[in-house]
Amino acid sequence: MHSFINNLPKAELHIHIEGSLEPELMFQLAQRNQIELPFNSVEEIRSAYNFSNLQTFLDIYYQGANVLQHEQDFYDMTMAYLLRCKEESVIHSELFFDPQTHTDRGIEIGTVISGIDRALQDAKTQWGMSSGLILCFLRHLSADAAMDTLEQALPYKDKLIGVGLDSSELGHPPEKFTAVFERALAEGLLTVAHAGEEGPADYIWQALDLLKVSRIDHGVRCIEDETLVQRLIDEQIPLTVCPQSNLKLCVVDAMSQHNILQLMDRGVLVTTNSDDPAYFGGYLNKNYTALVDSLDMTSEQAVQLARNSFAASFVSDDIKADFN
Ligand code: HPA
Ligand code: ZN
């Protein structure tokens, strides 16, 4: 079953590229850029990865991103992830990046986008892997800061497929970002948002109705609102679920209690994704095999998840037809 999953062509739709920065590369970049890390070894970094909720993870994740300074650093991080995709039969990926994590440290948004995009183009030419890039606004920062970030990114619009919303969810409802999402939509960008990870089902309603999202990232708390679940089914609104992340951030107490297969069996268009693989102990295949090991996922269900990943992606309809 594990090798079946490994060979199954898949798309990944919820991966924060800064969350793919492995401790080894973090250490290497810290040395290359003469940045002080509060850790003395790769082992020390790994042993700090014990989280009790989203915020305890974000604190350490933003700190790790400090080693990223130059275009080549963003290229190296992205290429490491794409090589991993190649090994795991991930043939299409839609990646998030957090520009404000970098621009707030004085790094030009163009440096960030160019480094990531150059790796995406190389993966396309070298092994035919397709991809898309989604700019995420940090929701713990202001709506004005998000609008300013969108303005800075517009000269690079041709390298983006959409915008998203991430970081600390509780206390930062989607409605805070209605104006900036409206502007992004007017610019022809698609929209997605993290909602219903730690936040209530109401945040999912807001993301749908106010931010006009095409997908919900996480969304597992939809289960608390039966009318919402029915809407997700009726409108086939995809959820990009991240099982291993949910376990590591204590959104679920045990993988055996995860609701992803229950939602799929009810007809919700769920997908499986890695979120921040360097921090949560595994890439995409690990997220599939965890469902086999803890929820007795069948090969038919694994194939359905892989099918859903293409159906929920932003690739064109004729390319989607090839994966059905
Ligand atoms: N939730 C919110 N923000 C994030 C996450 C997440 O799971 N990962 C990286 N930024
Ligand atoms: Zn995420």
State the main characteristics.
binds hypoxanthine; eight-stranded parallel β-sheet; single chain; alpha/beta; TIM Barrel; binds zinc ion; about 325 residues
Describe the structure.
The chain contains 17 helices and eight strands. The chain is an alpha/beta fold. Helix 11 (226-234) links the parallel strand 6 and strand 7. The longest helix is centred in the middle third of the chain and has 19 residues, at 109-127. The model has no long low-confidence stretch (mean pLDDT 96). It binds hypoxanthine and zinc ion. Residues 16, 19, 54, 166-167, 194, 197, 245, 275-276 line the site of hypoxanthine.
Q: List the total number of helices.
A: 17
> Strand percentage, roughly?
5-15%
Inertia-based shape:
globular
Share in helix: 40-55%
CATH architecture: Alpha-Beta Barrel
Structural class: alpha/beta
Strand order of the largest sheet: 1-2-3-4-5-6-7-8
CATH classification class: Alpha Beta
Amino- and carboxy-terminal Cα gap: 21 Å
Bound molecules: hypoxanthine, zinc ion
**Estimated radius of gyration:** 18 Å
Tell me about the largest β-sheet.
Answer: 8 strands, parallel
- Ranges with pLDDT <50 over ≥5 residues? none
Give the full name of the CATH homologous superfamily: Metal-dependent hydrolases
Give the domain tally: 1
CATH topology: TIM Barrel
Q: H/E element string?
A: HEHHHHEHHEHEHEHEHEHHEHHHH
